[in-house]
Amino acid sequence: MYSFKNDYSEGAHPKILQGLIETNLVQEAGYGEDSFTLQAIDLIKEKMENTDVDIHLLSGGTQTNLTAISAFLRPHEAAIAPASGHIFVHETGAIEATGHKVVTIDTEDGKLTPAYIQQVLDEHTDEHMVKPKLVYISNSTEIGSIYQKSELQELKSFCANHNLLLFLDGARLGSALCADNNDLQLSDLPNLVDAFYIGGTKNGALLGEALVIVREDLKADFRYHIKQKGALLAKGRLLGIQFLELFRDDLFFELAEHANKMAGLLREGLQKENIEFLIDSPTNQIFPILPNERIQKLQKNYAFIVWSKFDAERSTIRLVTSWATKEEAVHQFLKDIKA
Amino acid sequence: MYSFKNDYSEGAHPKILQGLIETNLVQEAGYGEDSFTLQAIDLIKEKMENTDVDIHLLSGGTQTNLTAISAFLRPHEAAIAPASGHIFVHETGAIEATGHKVVTIDTEDGKLTPAYIQQVLDEHTDEHMVKPKLVYISNSTEIGSIYQKSELQELKSFCANHNLLLFLDGARLGSALCADNNDLQLSDLPNLVDAFYIGGTKNGALLGEALVIVREDLKADFRYHIKQKGALLAKGRLLGIQFLELFRDDLFFELAEHANKMAGLLREGLQKENIEFLIDSPTNQIFPILPNERIQKLQKNYAFIVWSKFDAERSTIRLVTSWATKEEAVHQFLKDIKA
Amino acid sequence: MYSFKNDYSEGAHPKILQGLIETNLVQEAGYGEDSFTLQAIDLIKEKMENTDVDIHLLSGGTQTNLTAISAFLRPHEAAIAPASGHIFVHETGAIEATGHKVVTIDTEDGKLTPAYIQQVLDEHTDEHMVKPKLVYISNSTEIGSIYQKSELQELKSFCANHNLLLFLDGARLGSALCADNNDLQLSDLPNLVDAFYIGGTKNGALLGEALVIVREDLKADFRYHIKQKGALLAKGRLLGIQFLELFRDDLFFELAEHANKMAGLLREGLQKENIEFLIDSPTNQIFPILPNERIQKLQKNYAFIVWSKFDAERSTIRLVTSWATKEEAVHQFLKDIKA
Amino acid sequence: MYSFKNDYSEGAHPKILQGLIETNLVQEAGYGEDSFTLQAIDLIKEKMENTDVDIHLLSGGTQTNLTAISAFLRPHEAAIAPASGHIFVHETGAIEATGHKVVTIDTEDGKLTPAYIQQVLDEHTDEHMVKPKLVYISNSTEIGSIYQKSELQELKSFCANHNLLLFLDGARLGSALCADNNDLQLSDLPNLVDAFYIGGTKNGALLGEALVIVREDLKADFRYHIKQKGALLAKGRLLGIQFLELFRDDLFFELAEHANKMAGLLREGLQKENIEFLIDSPTNQIFPILPNERIQKLQKNYAFIVWSKFDAERSTIRLVTSWATKEEAVHQFLKDIKA
User: What stretches in chain C show pLDDT beneath 70?
Assistant: First the structure.
């Protein structure tokens, strides 16, 4: 049984484990004030060619989303998200649990546009409704699509004009930045959003997300929020060491490229078999549409998620590749598809 | 510079890192449903000779406290804690952030008794005040003291009679259970409290606390709460593998014993120098009272916390030992004290 | 300028003011423990032929909804509501501010059915999503429609089978119970829902909603929740006296009948002019569709809300009548429509 | 049985009821946008000789405290209060329910000073603890004492220097401003605190507190918070009309003077009998110390609260007078004391 279920089925890239071993007995300060974390933060700033941002290392996506969004908003303010957004669908109401409504918009491709946001603003006109304040987007999105630079520029400009915060969930940012048709660079992001995070968990780390706060007025006292939400690890070094390894020699991008390459092989192989896709995704999640019968056969040897019913006879499945996906497993899968 | 600042200055016990390496490429389910976590849970139940409890693995103490306490209480219910309790002092209002007041009592030794709790109950008589519902205790306490079995029995009985929940913060449970005058066993705990956790972070793990829920009506839907609080790690295996290593061959107790032994050496060495202590602590935190001048000299070579002013010329310091404390460092410290 | 804007444009029915005056200098206990409140509660129980329910008097609809729903739910549980539901649209995220997500369903007529709820249950399958627990309905709904007894029976039975709570927002319950085609009686409600409230504010009181808690396990400690949410009036008598007046001689029903009668006159008069309606509403809110030009003319002499655009040339307006609506104003409005 | 239990045992001053009757059928806008509310706000601003403040009318003290404090604070910020403060003792954890810790200080007289606050600041040094941000004081205090102008000036200056907000709970502000040794005027308050409220409920209104927000950065979007907390009355006129009556001809001060006068008569009468007081209170709450036996006799004809045990034979009782207290009842009480 080989799993294409998600991008967190394995442990961590060996270099990361190696980093943990080598530093293991060095005594360090706790709670993210260790030298590894400080170095990792400096390194990421360097890679982004921006030393003005604040960076904090947290454990996971939901934790980062809830800590940041609740810190950024006042009680009456709400987040705007696509209806497919992770904060709306798959975080057990974590944002609402901090007191904030998530207002959603149905989209085709999991991406927001100024027009969509304008709709929400038009409907929220007075104090009997929440005040939409933070725009939540993901890159890559929950269905594998990515934002072009121009799209983010438009969003940024719209948000600035409407006094909205733009927050980017980068749980799969690596895969987005390494996609074939991507024209964004990591160093563009501080100019395009108010805050975002760089996902480690789904790109080769044991755990870890690097939250980047760009906007000045969102920075104050952020460590209080991390602590209050139970997100300040006593051994913060665990996060620092991993991000050091991920960015020291661009391992972060290397791993994302591998994941994308594996997804690309799958995509091309499936296309050769005239298999259609639910959405044209250039990242490490792809959504082929297969006859139910064939899906059942595949499930004997492969683990993956059946995403949605497509028609009476076909369903969409989700195949996810990762830094650890083996090329031979991909080839075998394609062989089995043909059979 | 050698640090006696805390018990989380180093990484993890080498066996734990070895466990991570050996299992690294095994594909596993996410979110704590991996086979390592399931095995670890079974193993801990076995060690506790109790298969009726529910066990969940979380990342850190504050996270475990806030997730459990907010899951256990209704909105108007409050926790009762000693004024020195971690949830009151050092969690940035994490419990209050979930909506619950922490009612405190000043104690001598960081421990609650039925008499103390009765005082709180006497003062909270109607719906204009919160309803005290959960009794929060720590073992070992924040100042190193421990509960005897009979003390917990009295608390348990009092709580049962007054419809109160008894919750034990075991961030340093290992040290407590391995203390010289301790008469508690891990297997006693499910009979003595309604929920508690076994601290891994401060006893040799990179991170990790095992929350044990004993009381039946506190178990339902607990994974929802973990997820909602951002505490469900995608790679839950990271916690499972560590607890497997900690409990497979009783490494957990071995490490705590080492920490206690090192603290014992320090304690005895200091006593020989006629140094007094703020409190008689049998665990891995000790609180000697030293002349300010001598403290300053020590600070050149050792990191530790100056806990409180004792009198015009003396202060209390906190020395913490851990699974990783080197015996030669202890001897050197004692030598330096004499000098 | 005459207002058909809402049902809270005037003060209170004169009998209610008279009640306040007559009792004004009687010294009474505070916080809802006065004799008037106790009498009012007994009287309402009597009218409902049910002495097992608990009744609490609160000030307004949003306050009642947020206090009840947050008291009834555990942190991970969510409310299910029609997308037109007041708690979702017009309460500034009050439910979310207490930590709970509101999951919505688009409906035609503002009413939920088992089939709609089943859809939500089908989509919420595990701990990565909130757990739907409370079904929120309004009667009459926000768009004037009402539930038939059989419809509530089906909902009740569905909820019981799926371990869901059924909560009815009765801000306009009077109008619903007095509608022409209504077959529900106040005394039916305790058998059909787990909790509901009887709206006073929109039916002749200065302020006041009577929350009726039917289900045994929702009753405990409810006064704590009222106090915690700032909803326990020091002079609770203000609520007690009003509900006494409303129910002593069935003034509550008399006032609702008047409101409905006035809406009926409007409806029939408009129908005679071949004016269509957005929805067939038998209660005190009606939604005629008028040419934009005519709307503008009417706005010179009448206040009302323009509800929505209907087509290029027409919009829907909302006309609301109340206990205080003057019949001559209705006739004048109909005359002006013709002109 | 005559009650000295509190200052909310009766309804409202007749002029207020008269105001309600006279305006009853005027159609007005809902939700505090009616002309009465607008006039009342203008009138209060005029009385304070300050048109820069924002004023909002709410229903009760707990509601006002929780709405204001939760609107003013970010999630990690806490309130500082005397241990006798209403928000700490008698609001069922309402502030904590909005996510904020209340840090308390034991005081002799229920009043805070810069020295007390400095203590709290000294203890809250980093992100492992909440950040104290808002100083909560009451005038008059919960035990009847009042602030002198110079005391508020010192607090204001200290708060300004330490980036703290100063919030004054004025549930009994009338009584404070009309006390014999008071040197504060209503018009001083906007210069001395960042926000405060003028209590109507305990000074002759049916319900109602006028929240005055002075500091510019606390004003934005405040109506959203009122609505979200369930505190925006549909018939906001009920509050507007009452405050119009209270301030039109200085009825507010007249009523407070009466209450104080009645308390003064009681105080002097008791002093003549050589009865001691727990605290020297110049306002409408006094705290005489009486033999338990005498208390029991008095309880046959008078309702009041037994505040605390004083010694083996004596207890302190609380006597509260109000706008409605009858002078003959006071004389009779004093007569009965002598007997």
Answer: none
